[in-house]
C-alpha cells in the first residue's frame, strides 16, 4: 500500500536510505534512536519533503511529485497543532468540509469519531481547554476523519505521561484496527512499537537494520546494537559467553534464560531493584554482569550468593 523505493534524503552530515513497504491495513512502527531518520522517512511519505532520489508509492500510484493534500494521507505530527480558535468538533469537521463532504455524512463521521476517541464531552471546548492527552486524541480524530488511505503518526504519544500513554496506546491500537487504515508511526520507544504495530522496522543512522513482527525481532535481534536498543540487558561478548560455559560468540540471553536457586554457576547479587510488579536483579558471575527479572518472591537480597543456570535454548547468537 505504501512503499519507499530506494528513497534517499540528504542533509549536511546525514543521509537516509530507505527501501520499505507497508501492506494495506497494516500498522508499521519505525523505531530508532533520536536522529536516526525516522521523521525524515515519514515527512517524505507525507509529501512534506522531497527525496533527493527514489520514489514513494501509494499502491500503484507514484505520489513522489504530489503535494501532501493530494496524497490522501492523514498525519499527526507534533508540530502540526490543532486550530486554536476552533472547537474540538470544528477541528474534526474542518477537513471534511474542505473536501466537500455532505452535511449528513460529516455529522455521522464526526459523531462516530468523537465517540470512538472518548471526546463527546469535550466537543465544544477549544484546544486550550483540553489536557495533552485529549488534544492528542483530537489530532488523531481529525487525521482519521476523511478516511485517509494512509495515516502517518510522528511520536503520537510523545509528550504524555506514562499512565496516559498506556491508556492512549490501547486506544490507538483499537482505533487503527477498526478503521482498517494503513498506518506508519514513528517512535523511539520499543514498548510502544511492540504493543501497537504488527511489524516494526528498526532504523539506525539512516539505515534499516531489521524488520519483522515484534516477537521475531525481539527474539532474534540482528546484532548486538539492535538487541540492546530493543531492551535486552544480557548481551554478551564472546569472551563473556565462554566464561559462562556457552559457545564463544556474541550472545543474547532471552528473558527466562537465567534460572536462580540451583545450577553450576555461582553468582553474587550486586543490585536489587524493586519496580513494583517485578524485581530486577543485577548479578555478577565469573566477572560477568547479568540481569534477572521476576516476581518479588523469587528475588534474592543484595549481597546474597546464589546458584545460577543458563538455559542454552534461550541463548541466541547475534552479529557483533
Ligand atoms: N530540515 C533539516 N535540515 C538539516 N538537517 C536536518 C533537517 N531535518 C533533519 N535533519 C537532520 O537529519 C537527521 C535525522 O533527522 P530525523 O528528524 O529524521 O530523525 P529522527 O529519527 O526522527 O529523530 P528524533 O527521534 O530525534 O525526532 C538528524 O541528524 C537531523 O539533525
From TrEMBL:
GO CC term, one of those recorded: membrane
Superkingdom: Bacteria
Keywords, ordered alphabetically: ATP-binding, Cell membrane, Ion transport, Iron, Iron transport, Membrane, Nucleotide-binding, Transport
GO molecular function, one term: ATP binding
BP-aspect Gene Ontology terms: quaternary ammonium group transport
Domain ABC transporter span(s) in chain numbering: 2-230
Protein name: ABC transporter ATP-binding protein
Organism name: Oceanithermus desulfurans NBRC 100063
